[in-house]
Amino acid sequence: MPTETPARLPEGRYGKPSRPAPKRWRVWALSVAGLLVGGAVAVLAYANLGTAPIEGQRRLFTELPGNAMEITVDVTRDEPELPGVCIVRVRDITGAESGRREVLVPPGESSTAVTAVIKSAGRPVTADVFGCSYEVPEYLSSP
């Protein structure tokens, strides 16, 4: 009985023969690597973009005579037994920062309000909270 050789298709008409399927272990290895990278990105995003341990929200501001502005900030924190500090600032008509001040948030309730007066280099038009932290400078915490 003669052996028959498989017929080869003309390459120009049907294209090149396809490559063999990737090995199964490569598919699993790439899948696991993708999951690990995705998990690491999710953990870093949660740590950096999650809720802050202490936050300040501007409640109101009032212009005062002599290029000054009074601001009241609502501070929410997860460790009310620790003192905190919030940086508040005023801006002029161009939007440039024209005054800044650090305000001590004494230990107390988890949600509290602090008020401060900020001097400005020119006429202030708005005030806002730049940020809050538990890292209180020594000159604010000393009596």
TrEMBL record:
Spans through the membrane = 27-49
Q: Which InterPro entries match?
A: DUF4307 (IPR025443)
Which keywords label this protein?
A: Membrane, Transmembrane, Transmembrane helix
Per the record, the domain of life is Bacteria
Query: Which Pfam family, any one of them, does this sequence belong to?
Result: DUF4307
Region feature Disordered, mapped onto this chain:
1-21
What is the name of the protein in this document? DUF4307 domain-containing protein
What is the taxonomic lineage of the source species?
Bacteria, Bacillati, Actinomycetota, Actinomycetes, Pseudonocardiales
